[in-house]
């Protein structure tokens, strides 16, 4: 089955937002054993939308149109599609009542623009939007199908996941690993050395500041199992998850397994570690609290870092990272204390202590270790990478 995806919106084609919905559905298509033939981006203009539909339908069995189902004047996807296939639009009273009830519940009158959202295409199948208002719409055109989907991220994902529960191609074996501390290039080179360049037909890479997500996909079970086993063995020191779990969720699961609590002392990361940890529902079960000790005074007065050590070694040093981790653990009476101190730049570095230098302290029970990193990236990426490095090191110590 050949599938094409058309993302509609001036903000997409102008680069004002990334086409994350297009990326999400592309992965979904591939992992479902289907063939993604085209990804097209067009502005909110009738001519381009109609031309893209014809072009995609000529080559594909299924076409997904993303965006343009809202109530504003530039949301024209439904109207253009209806006109293109000589269909009418009619008001779905059930959807309209749902919208009205929402506004009544918050003590407001429904803006008239929202009435537009409740119109659907004649002869189309309405797919309920369980999160928002604008429904998905499916049109059957003989042996071809078109899906219209809202562009709001959460709504889009929920609808796509339901659609693909029944839209399956040839079943493929799929595995996931999440790694930290190794680059895509290093993984690829190692795999090519172990197997051959043909391994690239089965391994797919998705880098982010949280590390590297690896998807291993193969139709033949014996190939899949061989690659999975070898991968696990070769990269075990970098793997923190063998499913889709985010790094902060993995940390929470490890802490609950051990019955441990954790506290955080942050300097260079400015609170990002605490933010990540508390993004996980139920994190109050194991997260005792955190201190953003950005100044030397805060390190000394709150965390009990020795003033003479800061004067002797500097705030960005192994000694200070160690004392910060131990200090925050003691203050919060936690089982684990982690700390970060470093130079995020763009200024403030030196030959001995370059921009991107980060020390991470990890104190678990009676043992404290300090890890040194140099991240050669912009300021925000340094902070984000350092946050994930701190969490990663705790996970590996708890394995």
């Amino acid at each position: 089955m050949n599938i094409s995806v058309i993302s509609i919106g001036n903000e997409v084609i102008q680069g004002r937002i990334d086409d994350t919905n297009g990326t999400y559905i592309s992965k979904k298509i591939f992992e479902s054993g289907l063939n993604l033939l085209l990804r097209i981006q067009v502005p909110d203009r009738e001519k381009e939308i109609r031309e893209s539909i014809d072009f995609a339908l000529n080559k594909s069995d299924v076409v997904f149109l993303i965006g343009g189902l809202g109530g504003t004047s530039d949301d024209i996807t439904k109207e253009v599609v209806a006109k293109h296939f000589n269909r009418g639009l009619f008001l779905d009273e059930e959807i309209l009542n749902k919208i009205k009830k929402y506004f009544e519940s918050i003590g407001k009158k429904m803006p008239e623009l929202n009435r537009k959202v409740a119109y659907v295409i004649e002869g189309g199948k309405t797919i309920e939007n369980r999160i928002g208002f604008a429904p998905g719409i499916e049109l059957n055109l003989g042996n071809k199908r078109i899906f219209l989907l809202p562009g709001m991220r959460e709504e889009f994902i929920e609808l796509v996941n339901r659609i693909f529960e029944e839209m399956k191609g040839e079943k493929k074996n799929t595995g996931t690993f999440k790694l930290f501390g190794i680059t895509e290039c290093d993984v690829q080179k190692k795999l090519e050395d172990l197997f051959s360049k043909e391994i690239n037909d089965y391994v797919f890479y998705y880098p982010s500041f949280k590390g590297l997500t690896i998807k291993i996909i193969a139709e033949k079970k014996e190939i899949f199992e061989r690659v999975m086993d070898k991968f696990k063995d070769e990269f075990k020191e970098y793997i923190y998850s063998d499913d889709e779990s985010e790094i902060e969720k993995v940390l929470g699961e490890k802490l609950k397994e051990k019955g441990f609590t954790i506290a955080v002392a942050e300097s260079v990361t400015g609170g990002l570690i605490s933010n990540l940890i508390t993004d996980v529902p139920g994190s109050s079960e194991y997260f005792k609290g955190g201190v953003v000790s950005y100044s030397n005074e805060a390190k000394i007065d709150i965390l009990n870092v020795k003033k003479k050590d800061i004067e002797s070694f500097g705030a960005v040093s192994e000694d200070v990272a160690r004392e910060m981790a131990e200090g925050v653990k003691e203050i919060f009476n936690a089982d684990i204390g982690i700390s970060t101190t470093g130079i995020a730049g763009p200024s403030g570095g030196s030959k001995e202590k370059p921009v991107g230098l980060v020390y991470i302290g990890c104190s678990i029970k009676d043992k404290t270790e300090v890890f040194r990193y140099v991240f050669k990236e912009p300021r925000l990426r340094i902070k984000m990478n350092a946050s994930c490095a701190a969490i990663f090191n705790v996970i590996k110590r708890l394995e």
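The longest helix spans residues 379-398. DSSP finds 14 helices and 17 strands in the chain.
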